[in-house]
Amino acid sequence: MKVGFDISQTAHHGGVATYTKNLAQELSSLADLQMVFFYTSLRKSYKGNLKGVKSFKIPPTLAEILFNRLRVIPIEKFIGPLDIFHSSDWLQPKTKAKKVTTYHDVIPLKYPQWSHPKVVAVHKRRLQLVEKEIDIVITVSEATKKDLMEISQIPNEKIIVVYEAAGEHFQPQNEKEIKEFRSKYHLPKEFVLAIGGVGERRNLERVKEAAKEYNLVISGQDLPYLSDDQMPLLYSAAKVLLYPSFYEGFGLPILEAMACGTAVITSNLSSMPEVGGEAAFYVDPEDVEDIKKKLKAAMNDKQIRDDMIDKGFQQVKKFSWKRCAHQTASVYRDLVR
Asked: What CATH code would you report for 2-165+320-336?
């Protein structure tokens, strides 16, 4: 079976890039799939180690016009004949192959106030194509599936949930390397970690208010955005991850922190209870006092924190990129039978 997979999102940072990179790597190891990867970026050449990558220097704006609006050139002109084409969350090229796509979240459609108007417009155009053409939509959580069904005409039977995972390099780090990392970035010995983001979605104003009695480090604000290889050191250096986001399609930092042995406090909304299971503390993200109370318990009571960490290690085992790839490949196989 010849499968085309758009990996253009690996040119960027964030959860979608992490998903794309890890899933592509695992799919490449499956014997019955002949993978060919489509990569397009004007400024960043492909630097990964995948085989079968066909790279093109097309600006994102032009690619969106070419594949989502004009649609006169099929993807086969770029990467050859296919049985399956798995599109990204940005581009929906014309193709004769069976069509699969992944929805990581529906933020631009459900919460357009959190996105740039141009991004909202792209996702609206793409959704119209998905509704008309896609054979199967993969969502990364039940919560995202529910949201997608609310804002689209895609029927339940066309949407399959396949969970993401923490990468294998997310694990507790040794004390010597943690100490060196703290020194390099001038981090306090004990701190609460929060993850930055654009706009209001990560709830950082309430995070700052709830954590004002502790050292708070916000990734992307107090620190530069770190490479994926450095993130295990950041999680391991932190005492607690405070992640009371208003919305996540999946919430990879929850699993990544747990895998590194860090206690997690997150929101009781959207996908976060799915991902955190019984291992996380859950808060109402609008209730600063609730956040303060849970943070105090996790920071000040070692027994509570150790119990959260132990449960976190067990929760992480429920997710793997290998399982994600096998479930995704099953979607492909079912379509070509």
From this structure: 3.40.50.2000
